[in-house]
UniProtKB/TrEMBL annotation:
Source species: Vairimorpha ceranae
Name by which UniProt lists this protein: Peptide chain release factor subunit 1
Every eRF1/Pelota-like N-terminal domain range: 1-134
Main location, first listed in the record: cytoplasm
Location of this chain's protein in the cell: Cytoplasm
Keyword annotations from UniProtKB, A to Z: Cytoplasm, Protein biosynthesis
Phylogenetic classification of the source organism: Eukaryota, Fungi, Fungi incertae sedis, Microsporidia, Nosematidae
Family per record: Belongs to the eukaryotic release factor 1 family.
């Protein structure tokens, strides 16, 4: 099983391939499912080579034939189809300076791929392999109170608001007499109608072809409305946890995710938030066992003081020759630390990226960092990590 760093590197490679562009139709995407045979694909490429030989344009013909030959050569490095299938991406792409660069990549998917694909285009088709990175478990989250109900999904580090409705429920009537009885009855009727409407929306959103399309539903909110709701839900809806929140709408959604970390322990967003909360705690307590910015972090890495290195997955490159993120993914173990990639999908992640530059660490021991004299310290312009 690939660890988090290896998964990150593969995902980044696929994203790079996805963004690549070329001239003509000389970029080949070949995806082979697990049960397909290498010899069948080899024959198919031979047939495609024969077909491409008839392309009228000499330049385009030679480009396509060259790409097919590259695909054949890459395929020869595999004796049989890997357990999860195989993706081969070859061709000539244009870099940022509009110069041509040959690409020849073979990728073994992280999960079995069901797609069979052969495509000659001016771009690579990698979406079927990228889709495998979506976390297996997807959850529904419903936050209900007397004013709004928010319906959302949480998968991996991505939370998506699916729908939100608003309501104006009458407040309790303090006066006596027949009018109060009538008012109370109307209030109960509107409340029940509201809960019933929410229940129907839940069924529409989280059931597909009469089957639950999420792992389960989290019901959250400020009042006992969520408890009444759980009692009238479609029996096919699986409620995995009910939690009280201090807020409604999106703030309630964020709090519900925090309160359900035991249930969502396999969801990357919860893990990210926990790591970043630990990082912020060190800063708030002023323990000295933290670092941030490229300069401080590289200095602490050189000292061997970093216990957990935290990096934003989209950290901008500081050098054109090589991505720092790629370099650290290759070398972090040399510094005796663990490496955690985070997104900016949570409030903590956004704060880490915008306030701390997207790079930092939790240290093993307190380190006095003083850059009053730059001598002996590593700067952002240093080439030492290449």
């Amino acid at each position: 099983m690939l660890d988090e760093v290896e998964l990150f590197r593969m995902k980044k490679l696929l994203r790079t391939l996805k963004d690549s562009r070329g001239n003509g139709t000389s970029m080949i995407s070949l995806i082979i499912p697990p049960k397909d045979q290498i010899h069948r694909i080899t024959k198919m490429l031979t047939d495609e080579y024969g077909t491409a030989s008839n392309i009228k344009s000499r330049v385009n013909r030679l480009s396509v034939l060259g790409a097919i030959t590259s695909a054949q050569n890459k395929l020869k490095t595999y004796k049989e189809t890997p357990p999860n299938g195989l993706g081969i991406f070859v061709g000539t792409v244009l870099n940022d300076q509009n110069k041509e660069k040959k690409i020849s990549v073979g990728i073994e998917p992280i999960k079995p791929v069901n797609t069979s694909l052969y495509m000659c285009d001016s771009k690579f088709h990698v979406d079927d392999l990228l889709a495998l990175f979506e976390d297996e478990f997807k959850y529904g989250v419903v936050v209900i109170d007397g004013q709004t109900t928010l319906f959302a999904s949480l998968q991996g580090n991505v939370k998506t608001i699916l729908q939100q409705i608003h309501v104006d429920l009458p407040k309790k009537h303090g006066r006596g007499g027949q009018s109060s009885v009538r008012f109370a009855r109307l209030r109960v009727e509107k409340r029940l109608a509201y809960i019933k409407k929410v229940s129907e929306i839940i069924s529409n959103l989280y059931l597909t072809n009469n089957i639950l399309n999420v792992e389960g539903i989290i019901l959250a909110g400020q009042s006992d409305l969520k408890n009444e709701l759980s009692r009238i839900l479609d029996t096919r809806i699986k409620v995995i946890k009910t939690v009280d929140t201090n807020y409604g709408a999106e703030s309630g959604l964020n709090q519900a995710i925090e309160l359900c970390e035991d249930v969502l322990k396999d969801v990357k967003l919860s893990k990210e938030k926990k790591i970043l909360q630990d990082f912020f705690t060190e800063i708030n307590l002023d323990t000295g066992k933290y670092c941030f910015t490229m300069k401080e972090t590289l200095h602490c890495l050189e000292l061997g003081a970093v216990d957990t290195l935290i990096i934003w997955e989209n950290l901008p490159d500081v050098k054109e020759e090589e991505s720092f993120v790629d370099w650290i993914a290759e070398n972090y173990k040399n510094y005796g630390c663990s490496l955690v990639f985070v997104s900016n999908k949570s409030s903590e992640g956004t704060q880490f990226v915008e306030g701390f530059g997207g790079i930092g660490g939790i240290l093993r021991y307190k380190v006095e960092i003083n850059f009053g004299d730059d001598e002996g310290y590593i700067s952002d312009d240093d080439d030492s990590f290449f």
